[in-house]
Amino acid sequence: MPGRDLAFLTAIPDPEGVIDGLIAAVAPEEWDTLNTREAFYDRHDVSQATRASRDSAPGPGAVALYAVPESRSMAPHDAAPVLLSYLDVVAQGYLDVFGESGLDRFLETTDGWEVPFLDDRAEPLYPRAQPLAPDTRDRVDAALAARGRVPRRP
């Protein structure tokens, strides 16, 4: 994306698609902070397209999704790769919340595996990087290898 040296993961509209996700309550006074953190994304109201699981009880208010606008989107490339520390956080989140089948669905339904990845695990560049459980790291590495991807080292 112009103005960024790193790639973003984003949702792409697909009328036939379904993704696992979470609905997080955001207090009115917290929207400015969240919008600042997600400044490279546009916020979209997806209330009508959201199908809550039977275990969830969304409260009142709109459901929003942040996505990179197509006009500012660019494919990751050698100078702007996907950070492995970023992919790790996403993978760990899917595993923690949706279990192994959720992580598998994420890996199977995500496009763009042909792009460059940067292995920044030793010194993460992603500001919200988290330590990754060894078995999850192995699953991420196996998923990349199965798609012919070997992250380059910094």
Explain how this protein is built.
- Residues 126-154 are annotated as: Disordered.
- The chain is α+β, with helices and mostly antiparallel strands.
- The chain has one domain (28-146).
- It is 30% helix and 8% strand.
- The chain contains three helices and four strands, in the order αβββαβα.
- The strands form two sheets. Strands 1-2 form a two-stranded antiparallel sheet.
- The longest helix is centred in the middle third of the chain and has 26 residues, at 84-109.
- It is globular, with a radius of gyration of 16 Å.
- The model has no long low-confidence stretch (mean pLDDT 81).
Compute the average pLDDT.
Answer: 81
Oligomer: single chain
What's the story with the biggest beta sheet?
2 strands, antiparallel
H/I helix tally: 3
Region (Disordered): 126-154
Describe what is shown at a glance.
Residues 126-154 are annotated as: Disordered. The chain is of the alpha+beta class and 154 residues long. The protein has helices at residues 31-37, 84-109, 134-146; strands spanning 42-45, 64-67, 82-83, 117-118.
How is this fold's topology laid out?
Elements: H1 31-37, E1 42-45, E2 64-67, E3 82-83, H2 84-109, E4 117-118, H3 134-146
Parallel strand pairs: 3-4
Antiparallel strand pairs: 1-2
Observed structural traits:
two-stranded antiparallel sheet; two-stranded parallel sheet
